[in-house]
Each structure stands twice: as C-alpha cells, then as structure tokens.
Design goal:
The complex is a heterodimer of chains A (595) and B (587). By secondary structure, chain A is an alpha/beta fold. Chain A has three domains: 173 residues, ABC transporter type 1, transmembrane domain (ABC transporter transmembrane region fold), CATH 1.20.1560.10; 114 residues; 252 residues, P-loop containing nucleotide triphosphate hydrolases (Rossmann fold, 3-Layer(aba) Sandwich), CATH 3.40.50.300. In chain A, 64% of the residues lie in helices and 10% in strands. Chain A has 20 helices and ten strands. In chain A, helix 17 links the parallel strand 7 and strand 8. Chain A starts with 12 loop residues before the first helix and ends with a helix. Chain B contains 21 helices and ten strands. In chain B, the strands form two sheets. Chain B has a six-stranded mixed β-sheet with strand order 6-7-8-3-9-10, sandwiched between helices. A four-stranded antiparallel β-sheet of chain B has the order 2-1-4-5, with helices on one face. In chain B, a hairpin with a 5-residue loop joins strand 1 and strand 2. The longest helix of chain B is centred in the middle third of the chain and has 53 residues. Chain B starts with a helix and ends with a helix. Classes of the chains: A alpha/beta (595), B alpha/beta (587). One adenosine-5'-triphosphate (ATP) sits at the interface of chains A and B.
Chain lengths: 595, 587
Amino acid sequence: MTTATPAPVGEGTFATVKRGLALSPELRPGLGGTIALAIVQMLGKVAVPIAVQQGIDHGIRAAGGPDLGFVGQVVALTLVVLAISTAAGYLMTRRLFTVSETALGALRSRTFRHIHDLSMLHQQSERRGSMVSRVTSDVDQISQFLQFGGVQLLLSSGQLLVSTLVMLFYSWQLTIVVLLAFGPAVAVIRLFQKRLAAVYKAVRERTGVMLGAVAESVVGAMVIRAYGVAGRTEKRLDTSIESLRVAQQRALRTSVTSFSSGELGAGLALAAVVVIGTLLGVGGHLTVGELTAFLFLVTLFIQPVQIATDMLNEAQNAVAGWRRVLDVLDLLPDVADPEDEGVALPPGPLSVRFRDVSFRYPGGPIVLADVDLTLDARKKYAVVGETGSGKTTFAKLLTRLMDPVAGEVLLSGTPLPSVRFSSLRSRVVMVPQDGFLFDATIAENIRFAEPSLTDEQLAIAFEELGLSDWLAGLAAGLETPVGERGEALSVGERQLVALVRAYVADPDLLVLDEATSAVDPATEVRLQRALDLVTRGRTTVAIAHRLSTAQAADEVIVVDAGRVVQRGPHATLVAEEDSIYAKLYASWLEQTRSH
Amino acid sequence: MLGRGLRVLGQAIRDEPRLFTVGVVGSSLFGLLIIANSYVVGGVVGHVVVPAFASRRAETGTLALVAVLFLGISVLRVASIFGRRLGAGFMQFRLQARYRRAVTRRYLSLPPSWHQTHATGTLLSNANSDVEAAFVPIAPLPFAVGTIVMVFAAVLALFLTDWVLALVGVALFPALFGLNVIYSRYMSPRQIRAQQMRAKVSAVAHESFDGALVVKTMGREEDESRRFAVFVTELRDALISVGRLRGLFDPVMDSLPSVGTLAVLLLGAWRLQTGAISVAELVTVSFLFTVLAFPVRAIGWVVAELPRSVAGWDRVQAVISSTGDLHYGTKNLEKSGESATLAFEHVDFAYGDGPLVLNDVTFTVPAGKTVALVGPTGSGKSTIASLAIRLVDPADGKITIDGEELPSLTEASLARTAALVPQIPFVFDDTVRGNVTLERDGVGEEEAWRALRLAQADRFIEKLPEGLDTAVGERGTSLSGGQRQRITLARALAGRPRLLVLDDATSAVDPRVEAAILGSLRGREAGASILVVAYRRATIALADEVIYLEQGKVVATGTHADLLAGNQGYVDLVTAYEKAEQERVEA
Ligand SMILES: Nc1ncnc2c1ncn2[C@@H]1O[C@H](COP(=O)(O)OP(=O)(O)OP(=O)(O)O)[C@@H](O)[C@H]1O
Ligand SMILES: Nc1ncnc2c1ncn2[C@@H]1O[C@H](COP(=O)(O)OP(=O)(O)OP(=O)(O)O)[C@@H](O)[C@H]1O
Ligand SMILES: [Mg+2]
Ligand SMILES: [Mg+2]
C-alpha cells in the first residue's frame, strides 16, 4: 500500500495532526474543558513554591518573630488549592483517557472497515502483519502521545508564553539575549524534526516488516519444520528484529541529540544572561534583585522548552503511526461500491456478458486478452484450462473483485461498476480457490453467509447437498470447531463447509473456483448431482481441473494463455480434433480410466 | 505484584548490566549537576554579580570564566543526558529484541500441535506488544534508580539538619511506596485485561484480513466491522478503566511531596520558634523537598508501569516456557543414493483429546516402491502424511524409516531423508529461488532448475520478468493456485529426498501436466520411495501397492487390481467419474 499512497510526501507534523483531528472528530468536543482542567492542575504546582516563599517571608521572618498562625493559614489555603488541583488532575486524566480512547477506538474500527473496503489487489499489496499493525500498534502510538505528551506540549507552550511576557516586563534587553541564545537550538530542533519524522517512519515500517516475518514463521510453521529450515527462518526473523532495533536506536539518538541542543541553549542563555546582565548592571540599567529574579525566570523558560522539545520528539513517533493510519484511510478504494448511486441487479437469474475484456495485474503482463463472451442465465458453465491460463482471474472479474483494464463486464445487461455492492454480493457469490474458514464452529462459519439461519435450516442445507452423513459423523456436529483457517478439518472437509456456506447465501450466479478440488470423487459426484438439483434455474460457473465437471456442464469454456480458445458443449469440443480441449480430455481419460 | 514486577526488572538488569550501569551513572551525574547548578548560580550572584554591581566594574576575565563555567556544566549535563537516555533506551530496545528472538525461537521449535491451538494474531501480539509491555518500565528505570540514591542522601541530610523535619521525610517516602503498592494491586488486573484485549483485537484483525477475500465475496464487510468493533469496544473500556485508576493515582503521587513541603513549612515554623533550627536551614530543607518532588516521580513512572510489565512478561513467559517440543534423537541415516523404507506399525493417532483419527494403521513403503494412499475425504490421509515425516508423533505404535524409529533421528537427517508436499501449498514471501532452495546445503541454482523442470514449473518461471529472482508476495499472492503447487513440488524435489510424500499435491494441476510430472518422477535415476495420496486412477495405477483407508482404518491393501476386485468402497471411490458419465450417457 505504501507504493499506492496518495499522501503528500514529507507532510509536516502539524498537517498530519490536522488531518488526524479532522478524521477523528470525537477528539474535539470537551477539549477546551480538558485543557482548562490541566491548567488548574498546573496552577496547583505553582502554588507550593509561592506558599513557601510567602510563609517564609511573611510568616517565619515576620517583623515580630515567627507568626505560626499566618504560616498555618498559608498551609491550610495551599492544601485546599492542592486538593482542588489534585481533583482537577483526576478529572483531566479521566476525560483525556475516555475521550482519546473512544476516539481511537473509533479510528481502529474505521480503519479496519476501510481496509476491507479496499480492493483485493490493494489488500494484497500489503502484508497482513503490517495491516494488522495499522489497527493495533500504530494506533497505540497515537494514544500514548495524546495521553501523555499532547497536553504537556500545550501546557509547556502556555508556560513559555507567560514566562516570556514576564521576562519582557523585567528586562527587554535580556529577553532578547535569551531568545537569541535559544535561536540556534530552535533552528537545530526544527532541522531535526524532519529527520525524526523519517527515522520514526522507519521504526513503524520495520515494526510492520517484523510482524510480517513473525506471522510467516507462525503460519508456515509446518513447512519450516518439514524441511528442517528453522535456521533460515531464524535468520530472517533475527534480521527483521535487529533492523527494528537499529531503527529504534537511531530514532532515540536523533531525538536525544535534538533534545540536547535545547539543553545547550539553556546553558548558553544562562551564561549570556549573567555576563550581559552584569555588564548592564555595571552600566546602571539593572539591579541585583532584578538580575536574580531574571535568572529564575530563565529557568522557568528553560523548563517548558525542554519538555516541549521532548514531547515534540515523542510526537514524531505518534505522528508516524498516525500517518500510517491516515494513509490507509486516504487510499480510495479503486474497486468502489457505487452505494446509493448504484443500481440493483434486475431480479431473476443472471446472464453474463464480457465485452472485449482485458486484464493485467499491476506491473505485470496481460493475463486475459480480449475476452468477449456471453453466458446465458440458468445455464451451467465449466471453465477449464492450463495452470496459470487466467481462469481465476476471469472469476475475479466476473464477481468484481477487480475491474478490467479494458472492456466491460455486464450482468443481465447492467455494467458491474454501477451495481450496488449490497445487491451484487448477495446475488453473486464465489467460492474462492483457497477456501477460508473462520476460527469458529461449522454452524458459525455457515451463518457467516446468512446470520438468520436456524440450526434446523442449516441441517436442511447439509441434507440438500447430500452431506448430512458427513455431518452426522462429527462428534459435535454443527458445533464442531474448525480451528484457525479451518485447520482442524481435513482439506476436503473445509471445502465442503465453504460450499455449504456459499449455497446458503442463495445466489443467482454461483462461481466455483476449484471448490471441490480436494473432495474425494465419490463425494464430489454426489455433491455435484445435489448441487445441480438445487441450483437449477441459476447460473453457475465452475472452474475445475477435473473434467468430470466439464462433462456435466451445459457448456465448456476453454481458456489458454489468457484467451478463450474454445467454447461449446463437452461433446462438441471433444470432437474438434487436435483442439486444446480434445487433448485435455484425452489426458483426463488416460488419468481416470487406465486399467 | 510489586514483587513480581521487581523480579522482571531484576531479570532485565541481569540481561543488560552494562547498559543499565551507563544509564544509572548518567542519571546520577544528572542529579548531581542539578544540585551543582543551583550552587553555581548562587555563588556567581554572590561572588561576581554583587561585587561588580557595587564597584560598577566588570572584569572581562571573570566574566569569561563564568561563561565557561555555565557552558561547561551544560556540556556535562548533555553528556549525562546522553548516558541516561541512551543507556535506558538502548537497554529497552535490546531487551525487546532479545525477547522477541526468544519468543520466535519458541515458535519455531514448538510442534505443529501447539501451533494449532494458538491463534496467529495472538502469537503476533506476544512477539510484539507483550514484549513491548514487559519492558516499558525500563525507560525510566535508571532515572528512578538514580533518584533512590538521591532520596537516601536527602534523608541523611535531613537527619543532619533536624530530626523532626527528617521525620516528615521518613514518613513521606514510605507513604509514597505504600501508595504504589496499593496502586499496583488494583492496577494489575486491569492491565492484564487490557493486554488480553490487545491480543484479541490483533487476533481478530489478523484473521479478518486473512479471510478478506471471503468477507468481500460474501459482502460481509459490515458484519466483520461489527465483530471487530465489539473487541475494540472492550479494549477501549479496558484502557479507560486503566486510565481512570491512573487518573486517581498520578495526581495524588504528584501532590504528596507538596504536602510534605507544606508539613515542613508548618513544623519548621514551630521548630524555628523553639530555636531548634535556623531560617537558612528551613529554606534548605523546603528547597530539598521541592527539588526531590520531580525525580521521585520517576519512581512513580516505573512502579505505575509494573503491572503492565508483569502482564506482558507473563504472556511472554507462557510462550517461552511452553512444553510439548518434539525431541529429536542423535542418529543419522546414511545419505546414500538408495531410497528409503517407511513402515507404520500399529499406529494410533488423535488430535488433542479428540477421537482416534487413525486406528491401528500398519503398512510399509518398501525401498524404491510407490505406494498410493486412497480414502474418502477426512479418512486420515493427511494425518498419515504428517506422521510419516514426523510433524507429529503417534499416540501409539511406531513409525520407522530404514528400521530406525523416527524419534531417534536428528532433525536434519529426517529433513534430508523425507520430504512432504503438503495438500495446501505454502509459499514464503520470498523469491522463487528462495522458495525452491530454502538455502539448503547442496541445493543451488542448477538443482533448482532441475527440480522446477521436473515439477513442470520451468516454463512459467522462465516467462517471469525476473525469472528465479521474482518475488512471489506474501503466501505467493502473485501466483496462480497451480503455480504455487508446482513451486512447492519443486521445493521437495530439489532436496533429492529418499522418501517423497505427496499429499494430493497435484490437485490444482491439470491432468496433462500431472501425467508429465508423474512420468518424470518414475523415470528418475536414483529413485525415491513415494507415498502418494491420490484419487486419479492413473496415479494409483502407477503405484506398486494401494492402501485403502476408511475412517482412520486400513480396510484393504494390495494392488489396484486386487482392490478393484475385492473392495466395494474402493470401487465406488475410484470409478465414481466413470459411473457418473455412464449414467449421464444413459440418461
Ligand atoms: N488439527 C486437527 N484437529 C482436530 N481434528 C482434525 C485435525 N486435522 C484433521 N482432523 C480430523 O481428522 C480426520 C482426518 O483428517 P485428515 O486431514 O487426515 O483427512 P484426509 O484423509 O487428508 O482428508 P482430505 O481428503 O479431505 O484431505 C478428519 O475427520 C478431520 O476432521
Ligand atoms: N495477484 C497477482 N499479481 C500478479 N500476477 C498474478 C496475480 N494473480 C495471478 N497472477 C498471474 O496471472 C496469471 C493467471 O493467473 P490465474 O490465477 O488466473 O490462473 P488460473 O488459470 O486460475 O490458474 P490455476 O489453474 O493454477 O488456478 C498467472 O500467470 C499468474 O501468475
Ligand atoms: Mg486458479
Ligand atoms: Mg488431506
């Protein structure tokens, strides 16, 4: 996805934050209140030094000896202030957490949804681990910042402003000196922001890469073990883990360097104030008291500068996470749902028209060329052809998982891009080549297609497809857990469940991409018969290597190297001598009939 | 909880003692410089500024010295900051890397049965956010340790000044500590919950993105988002509940030192009245409390994160300490050109505590022979295949290669001897070359091409823009199903195994290609023994022997012809297509 990202390159921090805030309106309401509470909490901190100074000056060193009563009053008053500030702190943190977590929760959900709305090709252009990190750890980075850094940053800016004003009140000359002394530091910090943005981006990206490597080592655990290549996988994991660590360290080094420039600025300011202040004092422009006070003010000025620098650096990390999230949200789905502007498919069985359709995967060669064909409603079609000839691609175009690069696909005369997804997805269902089951029970997996089905209806569906014997053989029946990706079932069993799932969706156009490739022949034949019965009156397109499917179809479409080279009933095609299909069939016969 | 948290920190320090020392030295230096700076400011005002103002004359040399002093301290502070922050940060990152490695090592060495009971998303979260959580308190740790030293020094200084005021300090610090203990007790269940929900959200997201195609084809985006939102809401609530407790704890922790300062003021006034202390001493003491208030927070930061750290640590440890590893033996099989003999003797197998999936399975694949494994869907063929190369161990009975029981062999020897082409091809996010060679010894470019040719994958690879070096994408997304299958086939062939287990490895390959592949396998010079799961009669007919399986039991063994003559189930299975066609023709 990174390649397809439309986000402005080198976008500034504030631009990102603005973009982020615009996309998370939940963050705004009550922001003023939260900041007000934070200010109240901050005031409590200032109260104590004031109390000490007042207590000492006017109580302990009072003219008539220590005045315990006054000290008591000051302490009591300060305790009240402290209590208020503590309460404000509590309320502030509470609000902050509630608001930010609510907003970020919504952001997670929205991003999740958006990723599902992206086209299949967009989804596949990014590793799953990296996609997962966009709704998990990237968002965590934002929350970390909002809850701990963001408010600090605001308050520091406020403190900075106030102390500058007070400094100006004491001595405008020295104020200029201080600002000048910090000049280089500010320049350096600004300079570093860009670099920080880059290094934190690297951290986020490498986190994604590491997650990808971990995911692969988990998903591929079987193969890794079977080939005894744990060492190789280990090396890859270590590389990704190390490169993340290196990026983290580089980010920290950059951040500390930037922070240090503020520290040096502070030293420079202090030195300059003393030296120039003394010279000014010698010239009679300043008293000792004023200079001393100014020295304290400088400290008051330095503190927020340092905090702000630190938080700005932190912010770069959060912003890098935020940017990754926003970049996904900004990515427009290129196979988009026309939603309300779209139309519904006309009722009844669907016919298909491919009008001069060509397709290429991004950056690849043409894999389907000038496919021009019509499929009648209510008929059964089989698509056959060599491995890699473009059958699955054909199915994906037919179900609008992708749009052709040229030509158009129409269902019952309606161009696909103008069909609302709510209509399209309920009327056209495909069983993909690598059937996927969710880590749930068989019943839940089938209800995925149609949540309202009762257990009885599910049982009937199995019955209709002739699979009730199989179901009865399972100890827990419909409640059998299928495991992650369905791995607690045999591969053939997984396909059976995926098929039932598609069947209960009750589509008018059913596309089967090798849907029964792992099912044993006897079951497959039975299933096929059952399916023929129950799908009568609908259009079905079945891709298969087993030519038994082709034999049972009304018409066969033969794809070769991205072109439709033959079509017609099985018997006709077989009779075309030396044709691709005739050869395929001869080989199939040899495969299934010998002896 | 506090105790366990400290143990995690202790382990971390033991793991990275050097960086920890750098951090602590840096932060101690930092603390000293804070105090030094206030003395220097005081001194400069007293000894330079006041005389200069009084005499209306400033000596350039003195002023230059002052400037150098301030800048010098500043530079030293920069050094201490680098030491403290880089020491702490690098320590944290190294620890993260170290435990990520440890966790992923476990992933690699735990057996498939363990993997099947742990969701990918959760494992991802173990390696990522749990490791991260475990070491969150490391960042402020050196600072906190430096502070503890400072606090002890401060209390000592207090006692030297006035014992009554010292008591305030003595009361304050245990109070801070006690508060932290109470806090972590309440916090830890919340943090554990938050960490669990993080893992859950990650697991759901991972699964959902994994099944994105199904979600899309069924138009269930809305429902998936709802399902996800449920967990997001729970995570949100868990985090808010963490935040609320934190909201209570943080401000109180913040205020306690201030309360101490006020107590000092009040008691100090009284002590002053009785003449026990001087004004100067009182000022020093209250200044001390104010200065300490901030660093003491660092201790709070560490303690506040301990529950989260323990929650993460426990989840990490759960992986590191999980058991059930397959233990390998020490025997090596000779890598001769001879093909291997595989034997199953009375093998039983069950997944977890489920029913028996294999029951008393006995058969032999003699050296150089091809044995076909035939049986209906779900009868246990893949289970036998994974037992044969020891992905799992049987519940009962024994499995041998060349007479050696599998558990007595080394992992490397086993991997060299036997290769499985699984029913579902798994392709790594790598180049074609990487996928075929897997960087195994003796499997170079030539061998890769030889294997690809055998697997009939050479033609399409040659057409790829970068040939062998074309990246295939995560799980081979840029390949067609059959192309993936052929690459995994080539991967097995490239290692020249002596025993080849093909689990329906040609299902997505069209018949013509399959015929070619089988032909070339049979024609191989140094042949392998082959155990092949198949339905096609031609494949079966190539076999020297057929084992027919039903519901985990071997119901018939013999040649294809024997079985055709003697077993109805077998006949129904292998002649299904023929019969179907006949019926169609008749109809
Ligand atoms: N991980 C697992 N956990 C629990 N049960 C399992 C697991 N894997 C397989 N099973 C069950 O064990 C039985 C045998 O499965 P196996 O995969 O060996 O069948 P198979 O003969 O290979 O089937 P197919 O032809 O469909 O590939 C099936 O009933 C299946 O449901
Ligand atoms: N996501 C993708 N990105 C790039 N190229 C792809 C992608 N998917 C498929 N291809 C290429 O497009 C061509 C057609 O692939 P397709 O999956 O349509 O073949 P198929 O006929 O379904 O083959 P099979 O019988 O093996 O499933 C192949 O050469 C394949 O490598
Ligand atoms: Mg395909
Ligand atoms: Mg199987």
